[in-house]
Specification:
Two copies of one chain form a homodimer.
Chain A: H1 6-13, H2 17-24, H3 32-45, H4 51-58, E1 63-68, H5 80-95, E2 99-104, H6 108-119, E3 125-129, H7 137-143, E4 148-151, E5 162-165, H8 167-180, E6 186-190, H9 196-211, E7 217-220, H10 225-238, E8 244-247, H11 250-262, E9 272-274, E10 291-293, H12 296-311, E11 319-321, E12 324-326
Parallel strand pairs in A: 1-2, 1-3, 3-4, 4-5, 5-11, 6-7, 6-8, 8-9
Antiparallel strand pairs in A: 10-12
The structure holds a DNA duplex (30 and 30 nucleotides).
Keywords (chains A, B): DNA-binding, Transcription, Transcription regulation
Domain HTH lacI-type (chains A, B): 4-58
Protein name (chains A, B): LacI family transcriptional regulator
DNA sequence: ATGGGGTGAGAGAGCGCTCTCTCAAGAGAT
DNA sequence: ATCTCTTGAGAGAGCGCTCTCTCACCCCAT
C-alpha cells in the first residue's frame, strides 16, 4: 500500500486535483467549505506532499547544503565551535523550513562530490564553512549559479558574502590587556598561517607589540591542544624570561597551560595567558582562562539570515561581529 | 539557460533517451561505441541527473536522516562525542553514496516536523541519536514504514536495532580498578537517570560495590562539567572521608577535579578519580584522567553498516562494542 | 533458405505535483 | 434584459527521469 497522492485527496474531498493543490499550498482563492473538505481528506488519509514531485516542477528543493571543508581529523576533533555553528545554523534553517544537508569535504575526492552535488541543483543554496586559504572550494562554488555564503572570510578574494568575527580587533584587545597588566615579554602561539583566523589574530598581536615598542616572540601551532603544548615548550626554550603569552585559541591555551605547569611556571604570577574563543572548557582550566569571546551562535544565525536574504535578492554585505574580552584568572 | 536534460544528451549523442539513461545508470547492454558517444555528450554538456525526477520514479531518495533528539542546549554544547558520531556517520554514509540530512529534534514542535518529514518519504532510512528515556521519537519512528537504527539502546523497548557500547561492563571495570587500588570509600557521580548510559553506568558501579561489600555513595549529575563540580562538592560534604570517585563521564570528571582542587584534595593521593568516555580533554586535565574509552567512531560506523544492511533485508541484530580502561594518573 | 534465440536500442507510459489557461456562475452596471 | 467583471474551480500540459515492452537485427543451427 503506497502513500496517498494529491489525486486521492481530491477524490475523497470531491474536488479536482488543482483545488486540492491550492489548499495544500495555502492559496486563498478557495471557498471555506471546500477548503475544509480538502483539509479533512488530507487529515483522514494522512497525506504528505511528495517533495520529489514538487521540486521537479517548482525547481526548488527547500534544502540547503552545509558544507564543511576541512580535513576530517581536525573538524569536530574536539573543537566545540564546529558543532556549535552547525547546531545554530540547523536551528535557524529549520525555523525557515529548509532542510539541512550536511556535507563533509575533507579531500579532493569529496570536494568533487560536493561540487557535483551542488551543480546538480540538489540544493537551493550553500553555507560554506571553510577556514583554509588553499581551499579550492570557495572559488569553485562561487562559479556555480547557486547562492553561497561563507562562515569566516574566504582566504582568496572571491565574490561570496560572509559572516566573520573580528579576529584582528579581538587579538589586539587581548594583547593590549597583557600590556596594560605590565607584561613586557609577551609571546604568542599563533594559529596556522594558512587560515584567516590564524593570520588575523597574529596580525593583531604584532600590531599591539609594535605600537608598544615590544619585541614579538612567535611560535606557530595548528589550533590543537597538542600543538599548543609543544609551542609553549618551544617558547620557554627560546626565551625563558617571557612573562605572558597570547594564544590564538583556547584549545592551544589548554595545552600551553599544561606545558607551563610541567615547566614549573605559575599562572598568572610568572606567566600570564590569554586565549581566544571562550570555549566552555576555558572556565575549567587551572587557573580559569582569560580569553576573547566571540559569538559563534549568532555568527551562524547571521549566516543563515544572509543566505535567506540572498534568496530574496537582498544585499550581500559581509557581516563582522565583535569580540569581547572575558577576564578570568590566567591574566 | 537551464541545466541540460537527458533528452539533450541523447540528442547530442544521436541516441534515444532510454539509451542515454542506460549509460548513465551503468547498464551493460549498450554497445561500447554508443556508450562512448553518450559519455562524451554528457561531458560536453556538463550533464548532471536531476535527482528529483529520478527519485520521483524510483521511489528512492538516496538520503538518510540523521536525527538528533536532544534538547538543543545539551547537544553539542561541548560534549565532543555528538560531533564525532556525526562526522563518522557522515563519512560512512557518503562512502555509500547517501546524502545526510541533519535534523535536530529538540522540542515537541520539531519532533512533529521530523515525524512529518520522515513519514513524507523524503529519506530512505533514519539514524536516530536519542539518549533519553522519555523520548517519544523512537517508538513514533518505529511505527513508520522506514528503516530506523539507533545510536545507543532505546530506553523504551521498541523494535529498533541499535549499536551501543558496553556501559555496564565499562563501569564495572572502572570501579573494579578503584577497588584493586585499595580504595574503600568509593563514591560515584552518576549520569542522568533518564538516560540509558546514566542508568547502566550506575548499575555497573553498584554491582561491583555490592560484590566487594562496600557502601555506595551516589550523587547525580547531568553529564555537564558544571553538574560534575556541584556533585563533587555535595559528595565531599556527605562523606569527607571518601578516597575515590567513579564519574559517569569525563566532562563531569573535569568539573569534579576542579571541586576537589578547590577543596584542597590531592588527586590521586587523597581521592582517586575515574571518568568515562576518554574525550580528548581527559589527557589535559590536572592530573590526566584515568577513564574508559569507548569507540565512538566505530560505533557510528557500525550504525551506518547496520542501516545499510537493513536496506538489503539483512539481519537486524543489535551491536554492543566493548570499552577499554585507559589508566593515566588520576587513579 | 528458413526458423529460433539472443542482443541492442527505441517508444511511451507513467512517477506526483504545480500552474497556466479556460470556463462557469453569480454580482453589479447599464 | 443584456453585458461586463469578478471569483472559484477544473482541465491538462508539462517537470526530467526510469523501466517495461516491443521490435529490429544478426548469428547460428537446421
Amino acid at each position: 500500500m503506497r502513500r496517498p497522492t494529491l489525486e486521492a485527496v481530491a477524490a475523497r474531498a470531491g474536488v479536482s486535483r488543482a483545488t486540492a493543490s491550492r489548499v495544500v499550498n495555502g492559496q486563498t482563492t478557495v471557498a471555506p467549505d471546500i477548503r475544509d473538505a480538502v483539509l479533512r481528506a488530507i487529515d483522514e488519509l494522512g497525506y504528505v506532499p511528495n517533495s520529489a514531485a514538487r521540486s521537479l516542477v517548482t525547481q526548488r528543493t527547500d534544502s540547503i547544503a552545509l558544507v564543511i571543508s576541512e580535513p576530517g581529523t581536525r573538524v569536530f576533533s574536539d573543537d566545540p565551535w564546529f558543532a556549535m555553528a552547525i547546531r545554530s545554523a540547523s536551528v535557524e534553517l529549520e525555523e525557515a523550513n529548509k532542510q539541512v544537508v550536511l556535507m563533509l569535504a575533507s579531500n579532493a575526492k569529496s570536494h568533487a562530490r560536493v561540487e557535483r552535488y551542488i551543480a546538480g541543483g540538489h540544493v537551493d543554496g550553500v553555507m560554506l564553512i571553510s577556514m583554509h586559504g588553499a581551499d579550492p572550494l570557495p572559488s569553485a562554488l562561487s562559479r556555480l549559479r547557486v547562492p553561497v555564503v561563507s562562515y569566516g572570510r574566504p582566504a582568496v578574494p572571491v565574490n561570496i558574502p560572509y559572516v566573520d568575527n573580528d579576529n584582528l580587533g579581538g587579538a589586539e584587545a587581548g594583547v593590549r590587556h597583557l600590556v596594560e597588566q605590565g607584561r613586557r615579554r609577551i609571546a604568542t602561539i599563533a594559529g596556522p598561517q594558512d587560515m584567516i583566523a590564524g593570520q588575523d589574530r597574529l596580525a593583531g598581536y604584532r600590531k599591539v607589540l609594535r605600537d608598544s615598542d615590544l619585541r614579538s616572540i612567535v611560535a606557530v601551532g595548528d589550533f590543537t591542544r597538542e600543538s599548543g603544548a609543544i609551542a609553549m615548550r618551544q617558547l620557554l626554550g627560546d626565551d625563558p624570561s617571557l612573562d605572558a603569552v597570547f594564544v590564538a585559541n583556547d584549545l592551544m591555551a589548554v595545552g600551553a597551560l599544561q606545558s607551563l605547569r610541567l615547566a614549573g611556571r605559575r599562572v598568572p604570577d610568572d606567566v600570564a595567558v590569554v586565549g581566544f574563543d571562550d570555549i566552555e572548557a576555558a572556565k575549567y582550566t587551572e587557573p580559569p582562562l582569560t580569553t576573547l569571546r566571540h559569538p559563534v551562535i549568532e555568527q551562524a544565525a547571521a549566516m543563515v539570515r544572509l543566505l535567506l536574504s540572498l534568496f530574496e535578492g537582498g544585499p550581500a554585505e559581509p557581516v563582522i561581529l565583535p569580540t569581547e574580552l572575558v577576564i578570568r584568572e590566567s591574566a
